[in-house]
């Protein structure tokens, strides 16, 4: 299951080629919406299927509190529900 979560709409760069122009959006996802999103993912996942979560936005780190909350929440789910690290799971903070 491939999941993309937009944490923030804003961007801290001023690229000349940006389709957003000069007046960029500034909206940010809140904790409640993230929790609902994660619950939806867990409810609709396929048993034994990998879940890939990608954080996007404009720039997801413009919403640092939620970014770190999300990482901690996902790690908690891995530990409590999926018995990580006793089973083989990979967790990457960043993938290039």
What is the fold's blueprint, element by element?
Elements (H helix, E strand, L loop, with lengths): L1 E7 L22 H14 L7 E6 L6 H17 L16
Parallel strand pairs: 1-2
Question: What's a quick, concise take on this entry?
Answer:
By secondary structure, the protein is an alpha+beta fold.
Describe this structure in words.
The protein has a two-stranded parallel ribbon with strand order 1-2. It has helices spanning 31-44, 64-80, and strands at residues 2-8, 52-57. By secondary structure, it is an alpha+beta fold. It is built from two helices and two strands, in the order βαβα. The radius of gyration is 15 Å and the shape is elongated.
Radius of gyration: 15 Å
> In this structure, how is the largest beta sheet organized?
2 strands, parallel
What is the tally of beta strands? Answer: 2
What's the overall geometry? Answer: elongated
Mean pLDDT: 82
Percent in helix:
25-40%
Q: Pick out the low-confidence regions.
A: none
CA-CA gap between termini: 19 Å
* Element-level helix/strand string: EHEH
Trace the largest sheet across and list its strands. 1-2
Overall structural class, as computed from helix and strand content, comes to alpha+beta
Count of helical regions: 2
Measured by DSSP, the beta-strand proportion falls in: 5-15%
């Amino acid at each position: 299951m491939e999941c993309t979560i937009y944490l923030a709409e804003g961007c801290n760069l001023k690229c000349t080629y940006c389709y957003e122009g000069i007046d960029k959006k500034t909206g940010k996802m809140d904790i409640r919406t993230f929790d609902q999103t994660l619950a939806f993912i867990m409810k609709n996942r396929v048993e034994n299927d990998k879940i890939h979560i990608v954080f996007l936005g404009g720039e997801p780190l413009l919403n640092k509190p939620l970014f770190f909350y999300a990482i901690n929440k996902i790690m908690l789910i891995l530990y409590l529900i999926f018995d990580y690290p006793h089973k083989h799971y990979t967790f990457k903070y960043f993938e290039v």
